[in-house]
Predict the structure.
Amino acid sequence: MSKDPAFLDELATVKNPLQNIVQLNDNDIRFSNRVMKAKSRQERYKKGYILLEGKRLIGDAIQAGADLLT
């Protein structure tokens, strides 16, 4: 198995080919980084971030044309 971080990153995610969405595992470092940024009021304001959880909220955001950060 390759020790290349990009290769390991690909193994840790599940990509949906029909949509440009990447599902992160609970132990994925990118998940914790995104959550920490979403919890920071200053970071949310500066970057315009919002954290959505759940199929309905994410689906509504996609239908509304929101730009997704994966």
